[in-house]
Prior knowledge:
5 helices
Amino acid sequence: MNHVGKVKESEARIQKLEQQLSVFQKISRLMVREMSLADTLQAVVHLVTEFTHCDACLIYLLDNEELVLCASSNANSPDLGKVRLKLDEGLTGWVARERRMVAIPSEAYKDARFKSFRDLPEDTFEAFLSVPVIARNRVIGVINVQHRQSHRHSGAEMELLTTVGEQVGCLLVLARMAPDVIEQKNHAGLVIDNPPITPPVRQ
Amino acid sequence: MNHVGKVKESEARIQKLEQQLSVFQKISRLMVREMSLADTLQAVVHLVTEFTHCDACLIYLLDNEELVLCASSNANSPDLGKVRLKLDEGLTGWVARERRMVAIPSEAYKDARFKSFRDLPEDTFEAFLSVPVIARNRVIGVINVQHRQSHRHSGAEMELLTTVGEQVGCLLVLARMAPDVIEQKNHAGLVIDNPPITPPVRQ
């Protein structure tokens, strides 16, 4: 490749990295704002949709042994709160059960793990990227990114979604917090009265 | 600048952006791990030190009306838990009180807001970058990045530290969480039973 080509390639890479950073910064800002969890998850879905140019982004959260659709890039979807998947059903169930990412660039609907799901919002999509939502080291949900056309997922998309899965987990934990927890007057005591588990290395 | 120069410049920019992303991804991973808060803050201080090549990174947290030094890039510092600043003292106090970032590239020790602090760990540093730690929209501490030599802080450094300030705030809130909170069986209910505050836009 000549230098002009290289400059262009670098510029595109810089733009993508800046976008990726911007998503993290915006989610971080969501973490410190006082918003309803439903609004916050919608905002996350919007950021992921913008970054991946996907046709649908869905967040499922666990209710006992079932995954419930809790946020969708279609904010008015009648499926919200209605679609429920068991953990042994579909790619989404597989991701939650196995705690592993799945990336399928085309014909996702033909995947054997998909076969019994003819009536789900995932059904008409070629490409499917899915990661677990993790809180305190446990799976508590799944995020899916879906494209109608074939789409080879980039490393940046996979990395971003993995981190978003962790951040959504934190948002869920934060939402469980009593609103007055920050009224606590002594934050330093949390650290100082609970010294490191690992002994400091002598320098 | 010729094309070779531009390619080199772009490569440096890409490397810095990748580093910045890596810091966020690593802090995100810290958020889902089960670690003591002291260990987690030390890990954050280490990541910030690596990114900014600073000579000292310090985290102060509030105990009532005082800021207490809770983490330091010198993990064995005898000042940990000992150095206490009032909110009307020093640049660190100013940042907490005003909820604003301060970036001073040189002679930070000459800043009027600094003058009464001859015995603090900040004292011998030329450059000083400081941001508030925010949790639930309140200031609960301050993070300082200090260089012995003059240092013009980059936009990336300021942005990174601002976001780290928010993430440390989240880590503090998460640490207050009862360990069994994630044992809750219904995460979906948190969203579904508390619909968005803003009405969805009809499409």
